[in-house]
Amino acid sequence: MLKVDLGRLDRLRRLRLDDEVAPDDPIWAGSGLNLARPLDVRLEVQQVGHDVVVRGSVAGEVAMDCRRCLSPVRVPVGEEIAVLYQPGVTRTEAEESEVYPLPERGRELDLSEMVREQVMLAVPAYASCTETCRGLCPTCGKNLNEGACACEPAVGDDRWGALRKLKSE
Ligand SMILES: [Zn+2]
Ligand SMILES: [Zn+2]
Prior knowledge:
Radius of gyration: 25 Å
Number of strands: 7
Number of helices: 4
Order of helices and strands: EHEEEEHEEHH
Largest sheet: 5 strands, mixed
Distance between the termini: 74 Å
Helix content: 10-25%
Bound molecules: zinc ion
Strand order of the largest sheet: 2-3-4-5-6
């Protein structure tokens, strides 16, 4: 799962890696991501000299809450991937240059950390159920998309302002 046999890649020079990562896969542990369906991973892995180039895309859906009314929303996420794995790169260097460290020959290359990072970059900070979501009443908590509540408009509300203006004229 998301692993490349580097010996095999050395012989073939190019491999396809098409996979699905389940929502409960351990690679999401601690990421705060809540996948609504398995992530589709379509990658081509290519040996270029001593480096390994990984290109392709990931696509899926994450479950989030609407920022206004807190109802569940499924947000599509998709990301084009083009990353480089280089031998002899330390983890710190890798973080600074966005190049990933390539393990020694004869070992496996695990792409799961990179895939997790790419998905996290693709997920928006906020989700909305609709563009016009009315959110929740700050007083009673009713979902205002389902209709108005019985609360009076808050002090300073424009509606009362207009009324006061009428009265004073
Ligand atoms: Zn909403
Ligand atoms: Zn209310």
